[in-house]
Amino acid sequence: MKILITDSANSAAQKAAFFMQQFVIDKPNAVLGLATGGTMLKVYHHMIEFFKAGDFSYANVQSFNLDEYVGLAGTHPASYRYYMNENLFQHIDININNTHLPNGQSDDLPAEANRYENAIHQANGLDAILLGLGKNGHIGFNEPASSLASRTRLKTLAKSTREANMKYFKHIDDVPKYAITMGIKTILEAKNCILIATGESKAQAVVDMIEGPMSANCPASALQMHEYTTVILDKAAASKLKNLDYYHYVHPNGDEVNL
Ligand code: PGA
Question: pLDDT of 14-66, one tens digit each?
Fold first, then answer.
């Protein structure tokens, strides 16, 4: 794992945005995996800024989001389709028909999960995937005890996840109990993984992901098996790491060093 520790949550987001932009510059028809959540708002803010200031296009990019709630229409303000349209897609030149999320309103949710997994394969897989980290170590909605070999499927959300996402709903009872999420194996098949975590509330999950044993108890620890994972942290999220000095030594200021 490449571990980049930046001074602030904003510089971490900027760095993640820079990586995502670079994938598109290098491969204009890149297939990107995308995430939602509070942390990503800043990442998308910077991706939009870079797009407006830059000389590149998302017109031939395809995107697949990690997950979507079961039962919410894309017009529901807390749905991930709505989030993506509002916070990224409508601000860049991506073709909305090339943006994919699972259909959480499907009549046949297991079939929809299989269709989504197959659609990723038909697109020749993900060139890069952007990931957040749950306080409980989840990536996508792969909650603790998810199979490290899992594929896109229906998943029951953990109580802590529903509580963390309560802020987007009027009442805890309104937070969906289920989601369709890419599986851990689906994520590991992406050619590059970029995970961003900021804030002290993520510090323990960061330790479990990077320095803990690989375990379904911390689904993000499966990234230890991925050849090209970059973890971008701010100081607070990195604060509990045992080998912090080493990570700073390898990448001073969170920068890449060309040898
Ligand atoms: P957050 O969510 O960015 O809102 O903390 C991250 C996640 O649960 O994956």
Answer: 999 999 999 999 999 999 999 999 999 999 999 999 999 999 999 999 999 99
Which are the catalytic amino acids? 67, 136, 138, 143
* DSSP reduced 3-state for 132: coil
Q: Is 39 in the pocket of ligand 1 (CB under 6 A)?
A: yes
Kindly give the distance from the C-alpha atom of residue 198 to the centroid of ligand 1, in angstroms, as a whole number: 9
Nearest to 33 by CA among 174, 166, 226, 213: 226
Q: Encode pLDDT of 144-164 as tens digits.
A: 999 999 999 999 999 999 999
Contacts (Cβ under 8 Å, ≥6 apart) of 216: 144, 145, 146, 147, 148
Rounded CA separation 153/10 (Å): 33
d(Cα 253, Cα 201) in Å, to the nearest integer? 22
Residue 136 CB partners (closer than 8 Å, separation 6+): 143, 144, 158, 160, 161, 205
At 259 the pLDDT is 75
- Amino acid identity of residue 208, one-letter, is D
CATH topology (fold) of 2-254: Rossmann fold (3.40.50)
Residue 132 Cβ < 6 Å to ligand 1: yes
- Whether the predicted pLDDT of 234 surpasses 80: yes
Question: 47: which DSSP letter?
Answer: H
- 104: confidence class by pLDDT, cuts 50, 70, 90: very high
